[in-house]
Amino acid sequence: MTTLSETASPAGGATDVVLEAEELTKHFPVRRRLRAAFSGERPAVHAVDDVALLLRRGRVTALVGESGSGKSTVARLLAQLYPRTGGAIRLHGAETTVRGGRRFRAYSGKVQMIFQDPFASLNPVHTVRYHLTRALRVHDRVGRGRAETEAALADLLAKVQLTPPQRYIDKFPHELSGGQRQRVAIARALAAGPEALLADEPVSMLDVSIRLGILNLLRDLKEQMDLAILYITHDIASARYFADETQVMYAGRMVEGGDSESVTQQPAHPYTRLLIDSAPDPDRLAAQAGGADPDQSASLDEGTGEVASLIHPPSGCRFHPRCPHAMQVCTAQVPPRFEVAGVTSRGADESGRPAHWAACWLYSPEHAGDAAGAAA
Ligand SMILES: Nc1ncnc2c1ncn2[C@@H]1O[C@H](COP(=O)(O)OP(=O)(O)O)[C@@H](O)[C@H]1O
Ligand SMILES: [Mg+2]
User: Fold this and answer.
1) Does residue 244 contact residue 259 with C-beta atoms inside 8 Å?
2) Ligand 2 centre and the CA of 117: distance in Å?
3) Which atom of ligand 1 is nearest to the CA of 73?
4) Dihedral class, residue 68 (left if φ above 0, else alpha if ψ from -120 to 50, else beta)
5) pLDDT of residue 278
6) Which domains are assigned to the chain?
7) What range(s) does the ABC transporter domain occupy (predicted)?
8) β-pairing, 60-64 with 228-233?
């Protein structure tokens, strides 16, 4: 059987791996009160199982999946906000586990999160100046000198295009628009001097009309600062627009990945195809006119079957109960990653472009024949 290696392609400027997860797993124990319903077992929510992910310098990697698929848990594990049940996280190749304290501060200086709701992530009683100054000081990015701090603050605001700085620096969060607040949250993340940004649905709470501006800002920052960005979204159309690579997650497992163009234009996994078919209009991100909220129209739970239980996840491929192409093997064995070169004819090349893969038995040489034509 041909499976893809999960390890990085040879080191080189464009493919320099900043952060890497392997076999990342998180099971949340079900609260004791609810355990009565599960006599004898120690039930757990299998939120993330056996996830592999690479974040490269100067690249945006999208992590796409419907609500509840484990995306935020992956981000929080990578940020070391949760202890993990299993697996490894490597920062520049070095296995890293931190729990609070100085080591956490050092780690979070390299790996910063941006949350969905900038209003919740900024403290309403503090100004922009306070938020940014505190972040600079916590991460030892400025000394006590006033002029030095002022210059660093102006630089941060300029980076997120809030200029002139004096217009914003003494504002409270409620005096800013949603987009401006998210820019402040991004500036605060940059104050740490990070190499990786984990952006968990950074635009989904914002007005449709300003989403593109924030994504373009993140892309500019990626280019100027050579950042590795994880872009979490349930909107696969925005992944095509914004991300170099895309990985698709379903019920706690990665099901497909590769360069964004291949994954979004020639999706291989039946789940990815379902995601794309349920997304109403691929150009809606660019079409900034108001109207229907794309979040709601992109909801997948209508007419596509039930999302898998994460307490008793389906055996084999977790998508098999919803899959129109399910075969015998799909119910019995977890599919490994298979290259889908036949679909895209784009393997990993010298430039480090990721191979297109799917964790789906349809792409196994031994089983492809069992579902006639399904993968064609
Ligand atoms: N702190 C937690 N305790 C228990 N279950 C959790 C916790 N956080 C997330 N979960 C569960 O893990 C699963 C994945 O959640 P999440 O990572 O938030 O998904 P997503 O971000 O893709 O919507 C969900 O079933 C969710 O209910
Ligand atoms: Mg989430």
Assistant:
1) yes
2) 11
3) 17
4) left
5) 83
6) 15-31+44-281+297-308 (3.40.50.300)
7) 19-276
8) parallel
